Amino acid sequence: MRRRRRLARGLGSSAAVLLASAVQAQLEPSLFGAPAESRVSVQLLTDADPIGPDQTFHIAVRFEIARHWHMYWKNPGEGAIPPSIRVTTPPGYVTSEVLWPRPVAVTTSLGQEYSYFDEVVLFVPITTPATLGDATVTFRVDMQWSVCRRLCLLGSATREITIATSSRPGATGIADGGTNGRLAAFKKRLPKPLATLEGSQIQFDRSVLTLTGPAGNATRAAFFGIDRPGVEFGAAEVTVGDGRFRVVVPVTLAPQNTGGRPMAVGGLVTLGKEADDPSYDFVIETNTLPGLSKP
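Structure (tokenized):
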């Protein structure tokens, strides 16, 4: 069924409808005739209210996912589609890349998938202008996602959030509300830079990536490579022993396949198996490597 699920998303709308009709008898009736929005509820939150000048805060997008369904991490795996988030800000505000909590790795017949179950909070960092007045500001957030079980449904939503502003530097406050505990829980799941892990090393010779570091009490580790143009990862060899982890991954670089975009090697190392266990990310800008030809 997973192969059919993937195929349905890659076909045109008419072909997808025909395929869905062909397999409907093999699926639960409740999977059909219901929009993706019925499987996912979306809420906008903030970790700061009010916000002050020249400070960074987060708009948090909270997805509550129906039981037995799942959504995907930014690098979802074979054939899957991650959520997309676009924030429209007033002039002077600057958004940064979305921050993604540690996902769950699931092995399927098509390979590894990196997923979220039940609930996930994605964070959008926003830096305020150098000067602000005592007023309010409204942000619009447009979202798209796929939510999957035996098949995948595509959903979308638009929400707005209004936050108080203050002219006083350092005025950023903690937002009120009972959801702050959930935001804190998911912030703890955000990966930390691998370079900040004392005793860790990152080595890359343009063909083999080697990551090592202290594993703490963890007895298992995993590596998730980030799909980027011109970068292809081979099978990772991951070991944990004597209190340290070691990841060795073959990497193929193809500058001619980047379409002129910058090429970088990045990934995520997770320790333990629980969502709250440590995880670390890294990015290597390949234009800093000697001997690498440009496209």
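The first strand starts at residue 40 and ends at 46. Confidence is low (pLDDT under 50) at residues 1-33, 290-295.
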